[in-house]
Design a protein that fits this description.
Residues 10-148 form the N-acetyltransferase domain. The chain is α+β, with helices and mostly antiparallel strands. It has a single domain (2-147), classed as 3-Layer(aba) Sandwich (Aminopeptidase). The protein has helices at 10-31, 43-47, 90-101, 116-124, and strands spanning 2-4, 52-57, 61-70, 73-81, 106-112, 128-136, 139-147.
């Protein structure tokens, strides 16, 4: 089931932190870069975030997407899935949920250029590469956009 998460709740914030640490640790290994901000994000920072958090929850939280809404733009900040649920459609369902609920908006998202599974997922939805961002010497993220 997909639902909005009350990320201000301490236990929910802990669950978000646990999943994102697991998922971003794998992305960090792919990139050879452990400076991903959400990899080290404290629970209080999650609780105080102005992002909207949506979770995929079936008996336990399996994945999370968070984003901010600006004028005509959805800026996706994180899409994380617990590794034991990789390639089971969790991320796909979370993206579909956001796209369906924000028709007519433009979307932007960034991921590590070395994260081929994430890039393939975004491209499957029609996201187009917008630009490369060097986040550290020799370490790149790719920004994608989609007009919905």
């Amino acid at each position: 089931m997909i639902c909005k998460l009350n990320h201000q709740d301490e236990q929910i914030a802990k669950n978000i932190q646990q999943i994102q640490q697991q998922a971003y640790r794998i992305e960090a290994e792919m990139m050879g870069f452990y400076g991903i901000p959400q990899l080290h994000e404290p629970i209080l920072e999650i609780q105080h975030s102005t992002e909207i958090f949506i979770g995929f929850n079936e008996e336990q939280l399996q994945g999370v997407i968070s984003y901010q809404v600006e004028e005509g733009l959805i800026d996706i900040h994180r899409l994380v899935v617990a590794p034991c649920y990789f390639r089971k459609g969790v991320a796909k369902q979370l993206i579909e949920y956001v796209l369906r609920n924000y028709r007519g908006y433009e979307f932007i998202v960034s991921t590590g250029t070395a994260n081929k599974p994430a890039i393939a997922l975004y491209q499957a939805f029609g996201f187009q590469e917008k630009r490369l961002i060097e986040v550290a010497p020799g370490i790149y993220c790719t920004q994608f956009s989609l007009s919905n």
